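stuck on this one:
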Amino acid sequence: MTQESSAFRYPATRERVREGTVEHDALDQFVIEARRRPGKELRVRVDEAVPPQVEDRLATRDVLVRRAVRAVDGRPAAIETSYYPRDLTSGTELEDPADISRGTIQVLAELGHAQTGYLDEVAAHTLSAREAADLETPEAAPALRLVRTAWSGERVLRVTITVTPLGGGMVLCYEIGGPAPAGAAV
């Protein structure tokens, strides 16, 4: 968070398997580190229609869908819809509609599927009626749509589609190269 803005800065390039004890998923951890309050409303389904681009990337239409409306300081900030191949999730806690505080990236790593990389595609988007209702924003409002395809050394593990309204308070940040110098105001 910067002094000039109340926007939450999400360092999207820092999402990875983390060492040691992990108490929060990546987004919640960044919200907490920014001295803000995270929140989420979660739904898990196996019978949801799979968008063609997700089916192509996962090479299956048999998926588990975890959809969360994410909030910062009690205000809806984004909708994350993650699609996982069922052969990775069947019989695991990923099927449980409860929050997994350490995050699904950690769960997959514990199951032998450590995330080693991902591709982000960010594009302009117009909110659907359902998205607008969940985000407490007018229908057809401008938004960003981020499609993240995450993989291990062997296969695609998940495709996550994140929608956040423009002016909704979330700033996606991407760091390229080595870390910024200690104390740098970035």
Remarks:
- Helices lie at 26-33, 52-58, 86-89, 104-110, 129-135.
